[in-house]
Amino acid sequence: MSLLLLTNVRHDGRVRDVLIENDRIARIGPRLKVRGARRLDGRGMVVLPSLFNAHTHAAMTLLRGYADDMFLHEWLETKIWPLEARLTEDDVYVGARLACLEMIRGGVTFFNDMYWHWRGTARAAEEMGVRALVGPVVIDLGNPTRAQEVRREILNLLENRGGFTSRIRFAFGPHAIYTVSGETLRWLAETARNNGVKVHIHLSETDREVQDCVNAHQGLRPVEYLESLGVLGPELIVAHAVHLNGREIEILARHGVAVAHMPESNMKLSVGGILPYAALRQAKVPVVLGTDGACSNNSLDIFHTMKAAALAAKHGSNDPTCLPATEAWAMATRQAAAVFGVDAGAVEEGRLADLILVDTQRPEFTPGFNLMSDLVYAANGYCVDTTICDGRVLMHRRRVPGEQAILSAARRTAWRLVAQDAAAAGKGGPA
To answer: Of 298, 300, 299, 325, which is closest to residue 311 (Cα–Cα)?
Structure first.
């Protein structure tokens, strides 16, 4: 049995010890007497649940800063997709390791990923010790031949997803309604239900997407279109969901669909709207938080995301009480744990030991009137001192083993990819 004892940490306003046995929180109490445990002194720290990143494209860390300040569809079609076509599984592995490093340093121990070469991302998450929901991005562009290839890829994933620990789970990632045919979307939804896996898709990210859907599908808006296909259900997570009307929100609620909210990416890519959080909350649609990829954010810091979500909701509703700090924190912890079916998200006996120690001696937590306010409105990932996942210490005193090697490999890989892309285009690389 593996024993880890966190001593002198603050929990619910009191100094406590937290005993972790293997992967679970076994006991919380004052001055616990335990023999044979590894001890971490948490004096000056508060123990909290680790964070969830509900939507990202991890290996896009390799493209951070490569193509900024562009319109979304131009950005995808002229910069991102051409370079991504050159990626190998090993490239994705290198980029995903960099993402895992960044997220560990920011207190994130779970991420929901949609990207190419899923096995590279799964390998990286496994090695780095975090949890991940990994899914291949699906695009068929209405091409029947490509649609058959997609089906083979999905069935191959289902047949070959073994060999990983329970921390790594799998999902299907249809890119969007404008890149995946209705027939493929219907097949993916049915296959997901039959195999007990999640599906997550970009939806209603831009007004152009909505208008194109209305024009192409007899007046149906994106949520209505997915409902007509039989795609909606509790296994579905829709990313962005900025341009929703009241009827669409009611449909999402009725089908138990969750929304992943990426406020920083939405603002950076100027998607032309603000998530209607107040209406979603009133309809009891679960909303969780993601960063999106590191080339459309350009950070994987969920602390930043919590603050951006809260501020955007207040600004968009003209209501300073909309999305208070406690709700933003829940969206990144307890609510996300419920959406993704992970027995974590809270510091409670019996829960999975996915925890962080946050240094409350920093300026961001001074003078310290309200911990939730400080966490959401003042803190950032650098405030995390220790990150623990599945009972294993992944970072302590801001040190992650092997960090320099991960950074060096990512730099080499990213510059090689950009050089190849520039050579193919007959022009020089980025300045």
So the answer is: 325
Structure-block tokens of residue 306: 């919590």
- Phi/psi for 369 (5° steps) reads -70, -40
CA–CA distance, 25 with 248 (Å, rounded to integer): 40
Chain position carrying tokens 């979603």: 280
* Confidence class for position 431, pLDDT limits 50, 70, 90: very low
Distances (CA, A) of 163 to 43, 126, 160, 352: 39, 10, 8, 22
User: How does pLDDT run across 380-395, given as a tens digit for each residue?
Assistant: 999 999 999 999 999 9
Mean pLDDT, the chain, rounded, equals 95
One-letter amino acid at 391 equals G
Does a cis peptide bond (omega within 30 degrees of 0) precede residue 367? yes
Query: Reduced to 3 states, what is the DSSP secondary structure of residue 7?
Result: strand
Do residues 271 and 205 lie in contact, with contact meaning Cβ atoms separated by under 8 Å? yes
Domains of the chain as residue ranges with CATH: 1-43 (no CATH), 51-340 (3.20.20.140)
Answer whether 126's CB lies under 8 Å from 164's CB: yes
Tell me the two tokens of residue 264.
Answer: 């920083």
**Residues found in the chain:** 431
Residue 182 tokens, joined: 């209705």
Q: Residues 258-297: pLDDT tens digits? A: 999 999 999 999 999 999 999 999 999 999 999 999 988 9
Q: Which residue has the higher pLDDT, 69 or 348?
A: 348
- As separate numbers, helices (DSSP H) first and strands (DSSP E) second, the chain gives 16, 16
Pairing label, strands 258-261, 236-240: parallel
Which residue reads 């969901």 in tokens? 241
Spatial strand order in the sheet of 198-203: 51-56, 108-115, 131-138, 168-174, 198-203, 236-240, 258-261, 287-289
* CA nearest to 82, candidates 417, 428, 357, 320: 417
Instruction: With a cut of 90, say whether residue 189 has pLDDT above it.
Output: yes
Cα separation, 11 vs 17, whole angstroms: 9
Check pLDDT > 80 for residue 426.
no
Q: Residue 107: name the closest of 401, 395, 371 by CA.
A: 395
Q: What share of the chain is helix, strand, coil (3-state, %, to 5)?
A: 45, 25, 35
CA neighbor of 289 nearest in space, from 278, 268, 304: 304
Q: What's the Cα-to-Cα distance from 392 to each of 16, 131, 396, rounded to whole Å? A: 20, 12, 11
